[in-house]
Amino acid sequence: MSGTLYVVATPIGNREDMTYRAVRILQEVALIAAEDTRHSRKLLNHYGIATPLISYHEHNEESRSTQLIAKLQSGESIALISDAGTPCIADPGYRLVSSCHQEGVPVVAVPGPSAVVAALSISGLPTDDFRFVGFLPAKTHGRRQFLEQIKAEPQTVTCYEAPHRLLSCLADIAEICGADRLIAIARELTKLHEELFSGTVDAAQNYFGQGSVKGELVLLLSPAPQRQPEGTVKDVLQRLREETDLSWKEIVKQVAKEFGLTGSEVYKESLELRQK
Ligand code: SAM
Prior knowledge:
Bound molecules: S-adenosylmethionine
Number of domains: 3
CATH topology of the largest domain: Cobalt-precorrin-4 Transmethylase, domain 1
Radius of gyration: 25 Å
CATH superfamily of the largest domain: Tetrapyrrole methylase, N-terminal domain
Low-confidence stretches: none
C-alpha cells in the first residue's frame, strides 16, 4: 500500500497560525520535504516536531520527486512544506504533486495560511472573481508588458512583489493602468509591522515614497472600470437590432449584461421596439 503525500500549510509570520492538524500530521509522517531544511527545523522545533527533514526546492525538484515517489510507493507517508504559507503557491511542489497523481499516490491538503488569500480577504476589493499571477516579472520591460496585458482585466489581480521594487512597480502601474486605479497593498501580514494600504495608485506612491519599503508584500489591483455603453437601454437595443443579425433574445441578453440589468427588465424595454 502506498503512503500519502500531505501538502501542509505553515504560518506566514505568526506562529500561532499553525493548525492542530498540521502539527499532528507533521509528527506522524516518516519524512518532511522542505524548501530550506535549516529554516524549517527551527519552525518545527517550536512545535516539538522531530520528524526527519529532506530538502525539496526549485533546483532539485525533478530528481527529488523521483526519490520521494519511490518512498511513497514503499508505504511511507511524506509531508511537503515550504518556507512559509501554502506549498505550490508561488513555491515549489507542483511537480511532486503532479507525479503523485500520475503514479496513483494519494495527495491530501492540510490547509492553512497563504499570503494571497489573507490579503484578499482584508483588501475590500471584489473577491468573487480574482486572478493570482505569482511574482510580477522582475525586469521593467517584462513588467510593463505584463501590465499591458492585465490592465483591462475585469477581475481583481493579485501578485507578490519584492519591497525594493515596489516604487518602480507603482510608477509603471500608474502609467499603464492609471494613477486613479484602486490598489490594496498588504505588508507583513500577521507580523509586528502588519499594515494594509488601500487607496489609489497615486496615493500609494505618496504613502510608500516617504521612506524605504521593507518587509513582505502582496499587491491587489482593482478590476478595470468597465466601459459604460453609450445611450439609453432603448438606444442600444435599437442600434443592435439595426446593425447586427442578432435575435431579440440575444440582444436582450447582451444589453442586460452591458447595463448590469436583469433579462426581464431589458425584455420589458424591448417590447415597444419589437411591435414597431
Ligand atoms: N507559498 C506562500 C504563500 O502561500 O503565501 C508564498 C511564497 S512566496 C515565495 C513569498 C512571497 O509571499 C513574499 O515575497 C511576499 O510577497 C508574500 N508573503 C509571504 N508572507 C507574507 C506576509 N506575511 N505578508 C505579506 N506578504 C507575504
